[in-house]
User: What shape does this take?
Amino acid sequence: MGSSSSSRNKIPNAQELMDQTGFSSAHLLRLYDRFECLDRDNRGYLSPDDFEAVGGLAMNPIGGRIIDAFFSSGQDTVDFSSFVRILAHFRPTDRNRNKEGTQQELPNSRTRKLKFAFQLYDLDRDGKISREELLQVLRAMLGLQVTEEQLQSIAERAIQEADLDKDDAISFDEFKKSLEKVDIDTKMSIGFLK
Amino acid sequence: AENLCNKGQMELFFNPFDNLVCILLGISFTVWFTLLLVFIIVPAIFGVSFGIRRLYMKTLLKVFEWATLRIERGVSIVDFLSVSTIPAIIAKEPTSLEEEIKEIRRSGSNKDLDSATEFELSDIFYFARRGVESIMDDEVTKRFSAEELESWNLLTRSNYNFHYISLRLTVLWGLGLLIRYGFLLPLRVTLAFTGVGLLVFLTSVVGLLPNGRMKNFLSEKVHLMCYRICVRALTAIITYHDSENKPKNGGICVANHTSPIDVIILASDGCYAMVGQIHGGLMGVIQRSMVKACPHIWFERSEVKDRHLVAKRLSDHVEDKSKLPILIFPEGTCINNTSVMMFKKGSFEIGATVYPVAIKYDPRFGDAFWNSSKFGMVSYLLRMMSSWAIVCSVWYLPPMSREEGEDAVQFANRVKAAIARQGGLVDLLWDGGLKRAKVKDTFKEEQQKLYSKMLVGTQEDRSRS
Assistant: This one.
């Protein structure tokens, strides 16, 4: 019983988070409410099964990889600030940021967004997407709907197109180059309501 | 001698005062209990109503309207909108997988559109975005948090967005608090104890009678009376629609589930055989005494897992036409009354006539949803009893039977759609157990199928040409 007051005081390091992620205080509050909602046992952090209980995520073919992105630093719990930092990758790019004024790159810059997507492919985080890793992602996205041969040929074609230095793997720069014309900003951004 | 004299004087001084206090207390208690008896317990026994609760409801609504107006005036329009009417944080675009992936490729590719339907590295953007969107706001998890209200019903627990607006409003809220906790809560708790106590006592007494028509008649009356007292204990204002469709013997009554109060609401208008697990403690005492008066179906914890045993007992009960209709909540868990989730097929396999019932609570007066992961039973009941009132509507839908060529799942979905339609609730495909368990892989497969159709479809064309 009792009311939960929506004051900023319950979010630790609110100002720091706002500066580092670019979220407004209103968004931060809503995200905190969401965090509390996902944290079903009220432990103050999230674990993989809290994410797995999100229906929309469980039906996503790469749901498991997205969850891994939250736990990438080897820990098995996510606190609110880590949660927000990952979600910040999906903020729309700020059009009118003063280039000289930025001391640190915000998570929603083009490069950071690409890096996030790259890491969804690059499971072992060695900086390259190997043929094996590409096959694994394709298998996740296509399930049992395609045969092994079809999968191999899709992967083969993709590597041939993107792999410029012919080392049979796609590095981050090659990844960036092959996507240079794609409008990352709208495709890797989520429309936050004001 | 002086001391004695003084003491004597003081005693004389206090005694009449004491007496006066005692007399006053005595009178107020008597008045209190008489009022209780006349206005609440006697009508409960006979099933009539003075209409006091409806009058109370109308008054409350007027007060809430006034309170909402105050808020609208006190806060600027922008604040008000952002604070109270937009529950979502993100805007989700309703585009399909195919459209979106094509668009992503169109923006990045030099090739013309027709040949560009092969895998691109950028395809993953679509899945990543959808996945993160659902982390921030998804259909399923939202159903489980209490419906957010647009007006304020003077209960801070239901709307945490409203800060201090004006003195008058705060005073009103404080007054509301005083009335609810100081007057209504004790009254309701007394009634609740009376109702439950009478139930246990009278059903045990009726249980002593030999089986027969007299026993059934008395048991019916006893159950109805006690449930009606409980209804008044919650100040529940219930409107029953289409009572001609009320469940009959040998049938199964299914309803959507929002809180344990659903049982009280339905059982105060008709007699049902309850189904459930035997609990310990007070609950168990109530269950054991209820079953003495008329046959309810209680399972031991170990028996619950055995689906065949459960189905057998239910079908045995249903075949005996002299036994009361069974009351079942097929969602298996409490949902927040904005939607109806997947029905478990067990009760639909038995082959009896199904009587669907839709229960819709009016959220303006108090949130009846039991979030079992957040609140225990006792704190939930206390919350309920310190709300203003519980207003709900019950619709008895016409009976349904399983048709030729329909399997249990389809039948269940048909019943679910009917209930959702009648109650104005959203008909969701999701399994109510989702909030605790993982979703089935069939949904994931659908996504994979859609995506592979895009890619593999073109492979086939290529191999042909």
In short: Strands of chain B lie at 90-91, 236-241, 252-255, 273-277, 297-299, 326-328, 339-342, 354-361, 390-396, 426-431. The longest strand of chain B covers residues 354-361. Chain B has a mean pLDDT of 74. The radius of gyration of chain B is 29 Å.
